[in-house]
Amino acid sequence: MTTRAATFDAPVPLRRPASLWRDSWHRLVQNRAAVVSLAYIVLLLLIAVFANVVAPYPFQQQDLDNTDLGPGGRHLFGTDGLGRDELSRLVYGSRISLAVALVDVLIVLLVGVPLGLIAGFFGRWIDVLIMRAVDVLLAFPNLLLVIVVITYLRAVLDQPQGPILAVIAGLDDITGGLLGVFIALGLVSWLTVARLVRGQVLSLKEKEFIEAARMTGATNGRIIFRHLLPNTLAPVIVAATFGIPGAIATEAGLSFLGLGVRPPLPSWGILIAEGVRNMRAFPHELLFPAVILAITLICFNFLGDGLRDALDPKLKVD
Amino acid sequence: MTTYVLRRLLWVVPSLFVVFTLTFILVHATPGSPWDESDKPLPEAVKQNLAHQYHLDDPLPKQYFDYLANVLRGDFGPSYRSVERSVSEIIGATLPVSAQIGFASMLFAVVVGVPLGALAAVRHNSWIDYLSSLITVTGLATPPFVRVSLLIVFFSLALGWLPTGGWEGIFDSRAIIPVLAIGLGPAAILARYTRSSLLEVHGQDFIRTARAKGLTETAVVVRHAMKNALIPVVTVAGVTLANVITGAFFVERIYSVPGIGRQFVDSVSGRDYPLLLGIVLVFALLISLVNFLVDLSYGFLDPRIRYR
Amino acid sequence: MRKLAALSLLVLLTLAACTPQTTGSASPTAAAGKKTALRLPEAAKIVNTMDPGISSGGAGLEQIQNMFEALAYVDQVTGDIKPGQAEKWTISPDGLTYTFNLRSGLKWSDGQPLKASDFEYAWKRATDPTTKSRYAQTLWPVKGAEAFGTGKATADGMGVKATDDRTLTVTLERPAPFFMHLVATWTAYPVRKDTIEKNGDKWTLTKDSYISNGHYRLVEWKPEQSMTVEKNPNYWGENNGPDTIAWTLYDDVATKSVIAYEAGEIDRAVLVGGDITRAKADATLSKEIKKFERQGSQWIILDTTNAPLNNVKVRQALSMATDAKRINEVVLKDAYFNAVSIVAPGVPGQKKENALGFDVAKAKQLLSEAGFADGKGWPANVKFTFASGSAESKSVAEAVQGIWKSNLGIDIVLEPMEDKAFDNWRTTRKDQPFHMMVSGWGSDYEDPNNWYNLLFHSKADFFYSHWKNSEFDNLIDQGLKENDVAKRKAMYESADKIINTEAPLITYYHWARFDLIKPYIEGLYHYRVLGRIQGYLVRVNK
User: Fold this and answer.
1) Which residue of chain A is at minimal alpha-carbon distance from B135?
2) What are the phi and psi torsion angles at C539 (to 5°)?
3) Residue A163 class from Cβ within 10 Å (0-12 exposed, 13-18 middle, 19+ buried)?
């Protein structure tokens, strides 16, 4: 599909590109799937930001005379059990879901990757410490922690005293109650990536180019950033894109327990969960959010693939 | 090497300890007691009696050490929510079920996902690649509770091929939907990671060497590329296996499988402390072991990795 | 000639009388060799246990009630107390002593004779604090029971004694007109001492150890999966019900039972939400729908001492602006019965004329009189709290939020809470303020005492609405003691008027059971008070 498909058969010359970023961008732009995906994601972001302009109805507006309508007429995607417009709820829901996706990706990149790098590179007790922390957190009942934190926080945040609590209260409000979800994600999202990156580093560490770099006097930092990091990108990108459906599912589950988004705020996760319950009676209530979620994830995936291809220092350049 | 193995196994103990202590602190900080019944509230005296009978009114440090002492003797205590079965019995009955489904699902995931990912990598950027992307992402984009519900509606109601729920062992037709519903996610994940790490590897030196030696494409892929590419795959498989066993909650719930995931979530929402602590300890042990095996496998997959 | 005709007629009539009926219960000869089975759904979390003395009810109760029988039972059709294991009982004139005479020849499911001492053992055991019963307080009206249950006295001081093998004498602390209802409760079922002592906590797990005395006995229990029972051959009475009853346990009974029902795996399903709409539209299913009344109400509880709800006009406005009919019929798909008044219909004292009703214009006016015309000045943080585990509560909360916004112009904040956190929060509302929460109540027995006195007396304040009205209290205090039926009803009706006018709660539906029942099943009926299926009344015509 692309012009310079790098297949297994074609020989791959090793030539370092002139400028990593410019060549990467060049390659990305030539990947049609990635470009379309990027355009979709940008469009989605715009829709999320300008939801109140895009959405035909306010998301909480009920119409008890027109509940559970199928798609068509005044409601492009139909209505839900309270007569609320599904399209509008999808549009507003994108805010929550994109926020959740963003936080998840940030945690993966800013917490998981560094920890994995450090653990793999330095080894010994640092590795032990970080990896045992991973083991502990994997077994830990994170749900319980979220319940405790959120319940107390909500009780305390009722009348926030002092600047710290006021900020936390504000955060909780702005995000529509997502604080609990962010905490849960913070505990869990980085675990897989950390292990992945560490695994990669363990194997890369012994390679010749690292030794070469060391012999030319490169510092640890330089080795980590210039040499190790770019080579761990592939699994990181997959982990980042794959973390998103998990994050959205976590948000749906927590919102369902009353620990996430405050009703009547919609999120794609909640729409899907409610849709499953009415799946047989009113399938459109599940269909639209599920399809939109799938399309979004496919686009993130293709974009991620495109990025991986673009940033791969070993691919040849035209 | 043996020192490494021993050291790793020893490290399991403090991990368990930390998990246990953190969870213990957490359960006692959580609001809501095991006996609050929302429709018919119990008189205070009855609640106090129950707390007393289960030693919940002992000072916390005493409860902590009593529990530890019991665990060392193999006694995980009674479950608050079930009078008939102790924690050990509940775990003993449900863990094997989840383990069987978990392994079957991972087997399915490996058998389906890894070749799919390899195929996509070899035919990089072809229509096969894109199609497999589509399949895997869609498989992953549907949360587990959607997947299992769709499978039930399709296979049980529409086609009438499979029962709508229950458990009669891993070789019974009732295991098909749970294994599919749980395994599709990891299959998709493994496919993606296989593909991406194979693509990583294909440009490296030893591949050129293998090709130069005149090996067939398949041999190149299977014997040389795969082994190196497998490191991320194995890492993810390890994490996913642990998650699968512990997190198949939705599928267990909707398909009525008597697994341990349900017990875990129910013990949190029911504040069944002994059961929760017992399950957490079991999970911590399991996860530590799985991750340990994964780390060991690195040594086989990439001989250059050495453990000091 | 006439003789021949008469003889023929006689023969014909005799033949007709001997032919088995095709409807109703099949005669034993026709059914011989063919075993009938009833397959039902049940919630998987069999709460606590199958031990009648420990169980707190909920899921598991239906099974226990089919396998055991108390001294008396509540007739599922009329609601009367009928003799069970006891053939008669006498109550002393002062109402403090009950003497129960057991039937002769009573046996346990394993053939052993059942004696009055089995009842004495069971009652004392349930009350014993070391038994850890989750429903211990049931028998506290018995003399010395509460003291024993709270560890202040011994079992010997408890006023229940088997004076001989067939006589049980019970002494109460004070007269309790509803005591027979407690006698019919599961906590008062007899249990076998030897199997409990031999097997400890595990006595409920197998058919050999779970010895019972009711219409059915245990065949197999697979925890969280299924439970099967069969006819108890040693039951004293008749049982023309199905030979076996099998319950399949589901975590999400509402959705799963419908799927299993449609797949032909069970004979009854619970209908909720979208499935109701679908069933009504389906040619086959629409004929299998059955809706049963249950005596209960579901309310929004208001804190009457917390502004702005401390103003009765505000509460009345909210009540009259709540379109309960639409909430039930549209939002909840008519799963229940439309709200009539605070106390459920059928309870003596309840009068539908006392209800405020739905009147938006009046509501707006009242709100305006209270100082919040068109919602202006309405405080910002009025919270509607509910347990998020209930999807229904969430739908209702959102609907009410929208309805009040459009009818009155006011904004409320929805506060969902995790289930146990909600339970805990609710318990602390006893002397803490809140604004609104969701709760409900179903009759334990059909008597105004089980509603007005138990729930709404200012000293009881069961739902913590912090509502005090001395006139109301006086009326129901008198009503409690009044023996004349007509006078009693009048007192409670006056009380009913007061509580509806004061509106400390807003009703949004009355309870119901909405089932799908296969056409070959007869007699499956949920009585409106504590309705649970009594297997022996059901006929499986397959």
Assistant:
1) A298
2) -120, 130
3) exposed
Token representation of residue C287 = 């004929």
CB-CB under 8 Å, A258 with C416: yes
Measured distance CA(C69)–CA(C72) in Å, rounded: 8
**pTM surpassing 0.90?**
no
Q: In terms of Cα–Cα distance, which of A152, A150, A115, A149 is closest to A132?
A: A115
Return d(Cα B126, Cα B120) in angstroms, integer.
8
Instruction: Calculate the alpha carbon distances from C58 to A198, A306, B26, C251 in Å.
Output: 51, 56, 29, 14
- For every residue of C271-313, DSSP letters joined together read --THHHHHHHHSTTGGGGEEEEEEEEEEEEEE-TTSTTTTSHH
Give one word for C367, left, alpha or beta, with left for phi > 0 and alpha for psi -120 to 50.
alpha
Interface test with A, best of C326, C358, C418, C419 (most A CBs within 10 A): C418
Residue with tokens 């009853």: C245
Q: Do B221 and A8 touch (CB under 8 A)?
A: yes
How far is B284 from A178, CA to CA, in rounded Å?
A: 28
Check CB contact of C389 with chain A, cutoff 8 Å: yes
A212: contact with B, CB 8 A cutoff: no
Measured between alpha carbons, how far apart are the two ends of chain C, in Å?
45
Residue whose token pair is 């339970």: C423
Chain C residues close to B31, C-beta within 8 Å: 420-421, 424-425
Nearest-Cα residue of chain A relative to residue C256: A277
Instruction: Respond yes or no on whether ipTM tops 0.85.
Output: no
**Tens digit of pLDDT at every position of chain A (318 positions):** 444 444 566 566 555 545 666 777 777 777 778 889 889 999 999 999 998 888 888 888 898 888 888 888 888 899 988 999 999 999 999 988 888 888 889 998 999 999 998 888 887 888 888 988 888 887 777 777 777 777 767 666 665 567 777 777 777 766 677 877 888 888 888 888 888 888 888 877 777 667 777 777 777 777 777 777 777 777 788 788 778 877 887 787 777 777 778 888 888 888 888 888 888 888 889 889 888 888 888 888 788 778 777 776 555 433
Q: Which residues of C touch B157 (CB under 8 A)?
A: 259, 262-263
Q: Is A60:A264 a contact under the CB 8 Å cutoff?
A: yes
Q: Would you list which residues of chain A are within 8 Å, Cβ to Cβ, of chain C?
A: 60-62, 64, 67-68, 81-82, 147, 150-151, 154, 158, 256-259, 262-264, 274, 277-278, 280-282
- Tokens representing residue B29 in the block: 């900080």
